[in-house]
Design goal:
Helix 8 crosses helix 10 and helix 9 crosses helix 10. Strands 2-1-5-4-3 form a five-stranded antiparallel sheet, with helices on both faces. The model has no long low-confidence stretch (mean pLDDT 82). The protein contains eleven helices and five strands, in the order ααββααβαββαααααα. The chain is globular. It is of the alpha+beta class.
Length: 268
């Protein structure tokens, strides 16, 4: 079932708490609780995919796997996925073919459409999985995928449900990416990559970025949309867009893609 309108404010309030939990031991529990409000599912998993220099998937690392019924079947299936079958995952083709500025994609994978017999036998059948919903976010060589597994016979997701679910999935997967970054930095929430370069570029252009402009630029580098930034900073979306435009002018950069390219380019 899709979240009712009355639930949306609660979801975003819980999301704010989840952001505050980045880098802490409470993050997984809060994410599990929040994911249960999005759509009916039985198991939840989160994986990091590492890309090679040729942008082909190189390996995957599990962040966690959880079954709402408390069983171990999902953990066993996740172990099989990590150790043997992840390269047969259809989402790997999407990762390998993505454009450089595509930070997020979502997919719905019915078990019936998986061609690998071994994949189905070891990763889907033990948990009675009929469908997987994946929200994948990242850039450069690392992507984090938040996955919700639904059992056989679950009601199909309608187009209207997907329109409501997809942006929430984007927000949660970007937060999961920040959690992975925090774990990589010993539990500290790291600054968005490139923010120091943007600060220096503005100064070189003779106009320092304000505190609010830096906040908006850092959120953009973390992959957040204007609406998500507005929710995070508790300002209007119009304020976010205006602040972003002022920052663009000071930086002499004119789009999000230009921001990404500048920050990800090797320093001259």
């Amino acid at each position: 079932m899709k979240p009712r309108d009355s639930q949306i404010s609660g979801i975003f309030s819980a999301t704010g708490s989840l952001i505050q939990a980045i880098g802490s031991g409470d993050f997984d529990r809060q994410l599990i609780d929040l994911a249960q409000t999005l759509i009916d599912h039985d198991h939840l998993g989160c994986h990091v995919f590492v890309m090679s220099c040729q942008t082909a998937p190189q390996c995957t690392v599990p962040l966690f796997v959880h079954s709402h019924d408390g069983g171990n079947s999902a953990k066993m299936a996740g172990h099989s996925y990590i150790n043997r079958w992840w390269q047969d995952d259809p989402d790997m083709r999407t990762l390998a073919s993505r454009s450089s500025d595509q930070r997020y994609f979502a997919s719905i994978l019915p078990t019936a459409e998986i061609r690998s017999v071994g994949y189905v036998r070891d990763c889907a059948e033990p948990c009675n999985v009929g469908e997987r919903i994946a929200f994948t976010y990242g850039y450069d060589r690392h992507h984090v995928s938040l996955r919700l597994y639904r059992r056989q016979g679950s009601r199909a997701i309608s187009a209207s449900q997907w329109r409501q679910l997809n942006p929430l999935g984007e927000l949660l997967s970007s937060i999961c990416f920040k959690q992975w970054q925090a774990l990589e930095h010993g539990g500290r929430n790291p600054p968005a990559p490139g923010i120091d370069r943007l600060r220096a570029r503005a100064l070189d252009n003779g106009a320092a970025l304000s505190r609010r402009e830096l906040q908006v630029m850092e959120a953009i580098l973390a992959g957040m949309t204007a609406a998500q930034i507005a929710e995070l900073l508790r300002v209007s979306e119009t304020t976010v867009v205006t602040t972003r435009s002022r920052a663009y002018f000071k930086l002499d950069l004119h789009s999000i893609s230009e921001i990404y390219r500048y920050c990800m380019a090797s320093p001259q």
